[in-house]
């Protein structure tokens, strides 16, 4: 059966399976197929992709580990050799002590005359190295020769293709034991995921480690439930001609504390969220600045309407609270948590809630009152809410997003590379769009406004969060290289 790996693109929804479900899929498929079939399909897929990526390679170095991931590499070598290329295999296994599938591939590769070398070959920019060292069976951080080869692959000028996963990456969490090289240029490295796509390939360090993602299901349709979905753009609602500004809902942004006596102002955060809500199509956007503010007009976005908090009828609005809220946000949170029907909580709102058990309880009770809530923490804010460290959050982003969802019965947007969007009774989504150009002050405020506008227009909290996060990242992906990406540009994209 021919297999051509497919490129994974950001506009498609894909199910994501963890390592355990992938293992079960592999076992049940292997039980129904002739011996070695899956590895032969895997090796052929790797070889086809290798050829497509580097048709002019003079040398293809295949670094093979002691298990079945190495077996995939050996099988690929066989095909590449048949097609007249020059694969050079360095193998950490030995024929006496190798799993059955990998052993069969070793014999086939040896009999086909594949070149087994002691030392990795020299490679140039047109060449390719293939990481078939460890896959799902990685049990400890690579050391010795394996670590040396990984280092060599990360720094050599050729393209790199990882078989199934980059060695050392946890496919469940996206953490890696192998330092990834920040100077390596992602378009020059690739990962071919086999049988299933896994969550850790798309979050935490996964995106840096994997580069361009490819997928081959090896002709197997898994019967396993996914643990998450790769987020996709969703359907853009068309605006009926016979609509008016009331149809698209009202947003109020509450935040932007200023205190002249302390010489601080965070008005900008609230203005960014409000402008983003306006650009995202909200019918009317109000800004309620906290502290002693004398600002009543945004000359860049004069459509914004300024209101004191006590002059807002937030029972009829979607409220976005936190953006630059400072300490003063504590004064408005009890009322908002109790009565705002649709509420996005960001930044300082989350920090204040994290310190106050009564506000936490009030947040957790909103769901039973039929109120919709989206929390948009970055990892440190999530850690404060969970009373743990940011490193612990990052060590398992999916689990932390789920935990926040359970505790606060809210939709949760855990931000960062591979933003996780989770909601009660839903499978979480991992977002594939966005890049490190978003790592600049204020982009989170913009996201909060984008979510608020979608809720105001009638989307449920989870859909609003998913579509806003996708679009926010997509704006950054489309941004011209020569134009600096700033939060105010993101708030009002061209
Ligand atoms: N068995 C099959 O039919 C198939 C297997 N597949 C491939 O097989 C992989 C899983 O194979 P395995 O379960 O053999 O696992 P791996 O090949 O990932 O590695 C397991 C072996 O490596 C050793 N090991 C683990 N950590 C190490 C370290 N840090 N340093 C040195 N040695 C280490 C283990 O003791 C074991 O011998 C998948 O990721 C995929 O690439 C695919 O070909 C699909 C079909
Ligand atoms: N390296 C990155 N890759 C992808 N997205 C990122 C990266 N760094 C930051 N972002 C995104 O940028 C936004 C930053 O939000 P946040 O941390 O709240 O910043 P701020 O409070 O300054 O607005 C989030 O949407 C986050 O997911
Ligand atoms: K690998």
UniProtKB/TrEMBL annotation:
Write down the Gene3D superfamilies for this protein, in alphabetical order: 3.40.1190.20, YjeF N-terminal domain (3.40.50.10260)
Stored Pfam families: Carb_kinase (PF01256), YjeF_N (PF03853)
Give the YjeF N-terminal domain ranges: 22-226
Q: What reaction is this protein's catalytic activity?
A: (6S)-NADPHX + ADP = AMP + phosphate + NADPH + H(+); (6R)-NADHX = (6S)-NADHX; (6R)-NADPHX = (6S)-NADPHX; (6S)-NADHX + ADP = AMP + phosphate + NADH + H(+)
Instruction: Identify which cofactors the protein needs according to its UniProt entry.
Output: K(+); Mg(2+)
Can you give the residue ranges of the YjeF C-terminal domain? 228-494
Q: Which domain of life is it from?
A: Bacteria
How many and how are cofactors bound here?
Binds 1 potassium ion per subunit.
Residue positions binding AMP = 415-419, 444
* Residues given in the record as (6S)-NADPHX binding sites: 68-72, 135-141, 164, 269, 324, 378, 445
Keywords of the record: ATP-binding, Isomerase, Lyase, Metal-binding, Multifunctional enzyme, NAD, NADP, Nucleotide-binding, Potassium
What residues bind K(+), as annotated? 69, 131, 167
Against SUPFAM superfamilies, the record matches this protein to: Ribokinase-like, YjeF N-terminal domain-like
User: What is the E.C. number?
Assistant: 4.2.1.136, 5.1.99.6
Q: What task does this protein carry out?
A: Catalyzes the epimerization of the S- and R-forms of NAD(P)HX, a damaged form of NAD(P)H that is a result of enzymatic or heat-dependent hydration. This is a prerequisite for the S-specific NAD(P)H-hydrate dehydratase to allow the repair of both epimers of NAD(P)HX.
PANTHER family in the record: ATP-DEPENDENT (S)-NAD(P)H-HYDRATE DEHYDRATASE, ATP-DEPENDENT (S)-NAD(P)H-HYDRATE DEHYDRATASE FAMILY MEMBER
Name of the protein in question:
Bifunctional NAD(P)H-hydrate repair enzyme
Q: Which organism is it from?
A: Ottowia thiooxydans
């Amino acid at each position: 059966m021919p297999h051509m790996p497919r490129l994974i693109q950001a506009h498609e929804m894909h199910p994501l399976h963890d390592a355990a479900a992938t293992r079960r899929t592999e076992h049940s498929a292997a039980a129904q197929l002739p011996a070695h079939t899956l590895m032969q399909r895997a090796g052929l897929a790797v070889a086809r992709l290798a050829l497509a990526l580097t048709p002019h390679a003079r040398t293809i170095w295949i670094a093979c580990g002691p298990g079945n991931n190495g077996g995939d590499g050996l099988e690929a070598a066989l095909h590449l050799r048949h097609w007249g290329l020059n694969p050079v295999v360095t193998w950490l296994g030995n024929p006496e002590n190798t799993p059955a599938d990998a052993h069969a591939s070793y014999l086939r590769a040896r009999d086909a005359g594949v070149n087994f070398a002691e030392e990795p070959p020299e490679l140039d920019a047109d060449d390719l190295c293939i990481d078939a060292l460890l896959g799902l069976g990685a049990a400890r951080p690579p050391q010795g020769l394996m670590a040396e080869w990984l280092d060599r692959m990360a720094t050599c000028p050729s393209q790199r293709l990882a078989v199934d996963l980059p060695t050392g990456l946890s496919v469940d969490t996206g953490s890696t034991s192998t330092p990834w090289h920040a100077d390596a240029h992602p378009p020059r490295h690739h990962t071919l995921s086999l049988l299933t796509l896994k969550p850790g390939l798309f979050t935490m360090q996964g995106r840096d480690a994997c580069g361009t993602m490819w997928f081959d299901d090896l002709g197997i349709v898994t019967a396993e439930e996914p643990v998450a979905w790769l987020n996709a753009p969703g359907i853009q609602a068309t605006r009926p001609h016979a609509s008016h500004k009331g149809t698209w809902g009202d947003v109020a942004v509450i935040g932007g504390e200023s205190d002249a006596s302390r010489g601080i102002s965070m008005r900008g955060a609230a203005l960014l969220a409000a402008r983003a809500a306006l650009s995202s199509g909200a019918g009317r956007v109000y800004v309620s600045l906290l502290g002693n503010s004398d600002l009543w007009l945004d000359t860049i976005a004069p459509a914004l309407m300024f209101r004191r908090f006590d002059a807002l009828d937030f029972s009829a609005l979607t409220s976005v609270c936190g953006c630059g809220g400072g300490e003063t946000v504590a004064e408005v949170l009890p009322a908002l948590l109790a009565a705002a029907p649709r509420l996005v909580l960001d930044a300082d709102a989350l920090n204040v809630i994290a310190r106050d058990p009564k506000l936490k309880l009030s947040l957790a009770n909103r769901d039973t009152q039929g109120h919709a809530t989206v929390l948009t923490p970055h990892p440190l804010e999530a850690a404060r809410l969970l009373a743990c460290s940011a490193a612990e959050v990052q060590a398992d982003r999916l689990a932390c997003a789920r935990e926040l969802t359970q505790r606060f019965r809210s939709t949760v947007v855990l931000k960062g590379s591979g933003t996780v969007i989770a909601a009660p009774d839903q499978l979480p989504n991992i977002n594939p769009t966005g890049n490190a150009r978003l790592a600049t002050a204020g982009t989170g405020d913009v996201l909060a406004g984008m979510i608020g506008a979608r809720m105001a227009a009638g989307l449920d909290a989870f859909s609003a969060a998913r579509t806003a996060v996708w679009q926010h990242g997509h704006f950054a992906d489309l941004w011209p290289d020569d134009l600096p990406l700033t939060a105010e540009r993101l708030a009002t994209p061209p």
